[in-house]
Design goal:
Elements lengths: L6 E4 L5 H9 L4 E5 L10 H6 L6 E6 L4 H10 L4 E4 L5 H7 L4 E5 L7 H10 L6 E4 L26 E3 L8 H7 L4 E4 L4 E3 L2 E2 L1 H18 L15
Parallel strand pairs: 1-2, 1-8, 2-3, 3-4, 4-5, 5-6, 6-7, 7-8
Antiparallel strand pairs: 9-10
Helix pairs in contact: 3-4
The structure holds ligand LGQLAAA5.
The site of the ligand O=C(O)c1ccccc1N[C@@H]1O[C@H](COP(=O)(O)O)[C@@H](O)[C@H]1O has 25 residues, from strand 2.
């Protein structure tokens, strides 16, 4: 059986040079943030100009409805919509289940069973889930309780997000078994500006884990599913 490879998404891209560094060092997905209040906000037309090579393109949305999300997906040439607001299953279906990465907030739940129950309600209308720290928004740079997530069985592949960096990744890799990681402010020298040294080191840690440290290398990770 072929060992599974963790997905790596680097979010908050605003510059061509950063997209190229992410792809060069092995990112699978790059993210653009379309939340106007974010310091990482990028206009859809500017995102469209950024060439991401073989990496798939994700847009992050907080307050937009399905029609706005679909419009920006077209204009910015996106593969996936990361829905980080109060987007309900009907909205996810309107965007297109095969294109939705729905964000969930473990800190809204008393335990992992409550989180899994909420995720189950979206199982048929998302292709992937993303777990982030805090109770709203994103890009806070705060980590989740990794140990608390160690028992999660998700209905679809899922990404761990929230404050991940070369400093916090080793513990996340040791304690949690997602299908991939979403990296953002932990790889920056300033909001929206990636530090290539941090990008390289973070992806190196994940790829080293892929190759050497996963005792379950022949077994499915996380949900056991895959995207793409
Ligand atoms: O980064 C932002 O500014 C942002 C704004 C609004 C919604 C989501 C945002 N970013 C997402 O937040 C998570 C975690 O980021 P961090 O590692 O804690 O900085 C990540 O999924 C980003 O896509």
């Amino acid at each position: 059986m072929t060992p599974r490879r963790l997905l790596v998404k680097v979010c908050g891209i605003t510059r061509q040079v950063d997209a190229e560094a992410c792809v060069r060092h092995g990112a699978d997905l790059v993210g653009f943030i379309f939340h106007p209040a974010s310091p990482r906000f990028i206009e859809p037309g500017n995102a469209a100009q950024i060439d991401t090579g073989r990496a798939l393109r994700v847009g992050v949305f907080v307050e937009q409805d399905a029609a706005e999300v679909r419009d920006i997906m077209d204009r910015a040439r996106l593969d996936y919509a990361q829905l980080a607001g109060e987007h309900d299953p009907q909205c996810c279906r309107a965007v297109g289940p095969g294109r939705v990465i729905r964000v969930f907030r473990p800190q809204r739940h008393a335990d992992v069973a409550g989180l899994a129950a909420e995720m189950a309600q979206y199982a048929q209308c998302m292709t992937m889930a993303l777990l982030d720290a805090g109770t709203a928004g994103g890009g806070h740079g705060r980590t989740l309780d990794f140990a608390a997530l160690s028992t999660l069985r998700a209905p679809v592949p899922w990404l761990l997000a929230g404050g991940l960096s070369p400093r916090t990744l080793p513990e996340a890799l040791r304690l949690v078994a997602p299908d991939g990681f979403d990296l953002n402010s932990g790889l920056e020298s300033a909001p929206g500006i990636k530090d290539e040294t941090l990008v390289r080191e973070a992806i190196r840690l994940i790829r080293t884990f892929d190759e050497t440290n996963d005792p379950r290398a022949d077994a499915p990770r996380g949900s056991g599913g895959c995207i793409g």
